[in-house]
Amino acid sequence: MKLFEIGNKDVGIDLGTANMLVTLKGKGIVLKEPSVVAIDCKTGGIVATGEDAKEMLGRTPEQIKAVRPLKDGVIADFSATQLMLKNILEKVYRKYNTKRPRVVVGVPSGITEVEERAVKESVLQAGAKEVYLIEEPMAAAIGASLDVSEPSGNIIVDIGGGTTEVAVVSLGGIVVSHSLRVAGDELDQDIINYIKKELNLAVGETTAEEIKKEIGCAMPLVSEMNKEIRGRDLTTGLPRNIIINSTQIQKAMEESINEIIEAIKNTLEKTPPELASDIMEKGIVLAGGGALIQNLDKLLSTKTGMPVYIASDPLDCVVKGTGKTLEDLDKLKSVLINSRRN
After folding, report:
1. Contact 296, 290 (CB under 8 A)
2. What structural domains does the chain harbor?
3. What is the model's pTM?
4. pLDDT digits (tens, 9 = 90+) for 41-58
C-alpha cells in the first residue's frame, strides 16, 4: 500500500526561519513569503503575514506585535506559528481550491521529537489531513537534483536563516550530518554588532540583511563594494548616514563563516572512506540563501581542497525537494522521518 495516495491536494512546505515556501503538486512553488506574522495583542487576531508583516518589524505601535515565530529552524512561538501557517495555507487553499491536503514539511536534521510534534501539530491545526516530515538537507539534496537513492555519496550544505545543515547522503538516507545553529540570522547579527562596536551606529535586522545581500562576501572582492546606510548614532541618539564597504562586512561575518566551514570539515572527517572518494570527485553542493554570499564557494573550495558548486535556485531547493518527494513517494518514502520512526 502506498504511504498516501498522490493527488492534487498534496502540499510541500519549507518552514524556514527566514522564509516560508509552499509548493503544490502540479503547480510548483505557489507561495514564497517571509516567516513573519503581525498580531493584534488585544484581539489575538492576525494583522498581516509575510512581506506586509516583515515591513512592520521594529515599527509597530504597542497594541501590534510583529514577530518571527521560528528560531534556529524550529518553532519558538507556537501560537504565532499556528496563526501564520493557518493564514498562509488558507490563502493557498482558497486560490487553488485545495481542502484538507496531505503535507510534507522540511525540518532541520537536528530537530528533537518535541519540536517535531510542535511542527506537526501546527500544520494539522492549519487544516492539513496528514503531515509528514523530511530533513531539510535531504529535501535540499533532492531539490538540487542529486540522485539520493544511488549507492554513491553526495554532500549538501544548506545555509538557511536559522540553521546550516551539512549532510552526506547515499542510498536514500543521511549517512553523516551536522546541524549548526549558525546561519543567515547569525550573520545579520554579526553585522549589527560590528556596526555598533566599530562605527557607533545602531541598525536593525532589515538593514543588516540588506547589507549582507548586497555587499556581503566571504573573501575580498576583485573591486570593493560600498553601500550607504542609515542608523541611529549611539552618542547623539540622532539618525546618521555612513558608507560601509564589503571588506568591513567580510570582517564582521568572518567568525561565523569559519564556524560553518569547520562544521563542513567535521562532517567530511566522519564520512566513510568509500563515500569520501565519491565526494572528492563530485564536490560540495551549496543550497539555501547563504549560498549566495559572494566568494563563499571559493573560500570553501580553498579550505577543503574540493570543488564547490552552487545549486540552481539555492533558495528554493528545500521546497522543491518536498515537491519531488510527493511526486515520487514510492521511491522516496524512506527519506521521510515518519516512516523511519513510526
Report:
1. yes
2. 11-139+317-341 (3.30.420.40), 143-182+258-315 (3.30.420.40), 184-252 (3.90.640.10)
3. 0.88
4. 889 888 988 889 988 888
